[in-house]
Amino acid sequence: MKKRNYRDLSNIEKKNIKEKYYLTESGKINKKRFNRLLIYGLLCLIYALVLVLDAIINKAGVINYIFASFMFIFALIFLIGREKVLIRNINSFLKKNK
Questions:
Q1: pLDDT for the residue numbered 6
Q2: pLDDT per residue over 29-59, tens digit each?
Q3: Is residue 28 a part of any domain in this protein?
Q4: Which residues contact 37 (CB under 8 A, 6 or more apart)?
Q5: Whole-prediction pTM value?
């Protein structure tokens, strides 16, 4: 018997499973956390772009580019980590609710 995995589902099934997961108690709590991580990641990306544009316009030193690259890396970590944790939680939800 084949295991159900989030990655193997169709888009409609993924949407339905996410909605069912978010109706659970842990899903409600985690949804707030996932949204917060998404906001932090997007704000870090925007801030990194602003820093790069500011460094280009003002012909700033290398330290500004380094700081912007660190901000960009942290933003990617937030966004990728958020997605991995979300998929891991939904996969465990699928295993419990076969």
A1: 79
A2: 999 999 999 999 999 999 999 999 998 898 8
A3: no
A4: 78, 79, 81, 82
A5: 0.78
Q: Which pair of tokens denotes residue 8?
A: 């193997």
pLDDT digits (tens, 9 = 90+) for 72-85: 999 999 999 999 99
DSSP label of 10: -
CB 54 within 8 A of CB 64: yes
CB 37 within 8 A of CB 82: yes
Q: Tell me how many domains the chain contains.
A: 1
Q: Identify whether 46 is part of a domain.
A: no
CB 48 within 8 A of CB 71: yes
Q: Identify the residue whose tokens are 């018997």.
A: 1
The verdict on residue 68 lying in a domain is yes
Estimate the crossing angle of helix 62-96 against helix 11-23, to 10 degrees. Answer: 80
Question: Which range of residues forms the domain containing residue 71?
Answer: 59-98
- Classify residue 84: in a domain, yes or no: yes
